[in-house]
Amino acid sequence: MTQVCIAAYVYGVVQGVGFRYSTQHQATALGLSGYARNLDDGSVEVVACGEQPQVDKLVEWLKNGGPRSARVERVLVEPRGTADYQGFSIRY
């Protein structure tokens, strides 16, 4: 299968609630690479690369609210060019 990469921007109460760590755990379990990082506007950017069905599962998880402590209001997803990330990291 072909590798795809997406960038998802997650808005709502998503900082200070373990969102990046939960996303890292979920993405790693799905075999994805990329990163999650907080943005200055209070949102979280998630870049995920891997097989299309696995990336779709992560996006669905994000849209369904992510971790229980988060309150996701909306998720914007856009395609990204493929990149060679080593694992799934949390960026600061």
Automatic annotation (TrEMBL):
UniProt-listed InterPro entries? Acylphosphatase (IPR020456), Acylphosphatase-like_dom (IPR001792), Acylphosphatase-like_dom_sf (IPR036046), Acylphosphatase_bac (IPR028627), Acylphosphatase_CS (IPR017968)
> What SUPFAM superfamilies does its record include?
Acylphosphatase/BLUF domain-like (SSF54975)
Q: Which enzyme class?
A: hydrolase
Q: Which residues form the active site?
A: R20, N38
Q: Which residues form the Acylphosphatase-like domain?
A: 5-92
Q: What is its EC number?
A: 3.6.1.7
Transmembrane segments annotated in the record for this chain: none
From which domain of life does this come? Bacteria
Decide whether keyword Hydrolase is in the record.
yes
Catalyzes what?
an acyl phosphate + H2O = a carboxylate + phosphate + H(+)
Which Gene3D superfamilies does its entry note? 3.30.70.100
Q: Name one GO molecular function term.
A: acylphosphatase activity
Q: Which UniProt keywords apply?
A: Hydrolase
HAMAP family (UniProt xref) = Acylphosphatase_entero (MF_01450)
Q: Which NCBIfam families does UniProt cross-reference here?
A: PRK14426.1, PRK14451.1
Say which family it is in.
Belongs to the acylphosphatase family.
- List the protein's name: Acylphosphatase
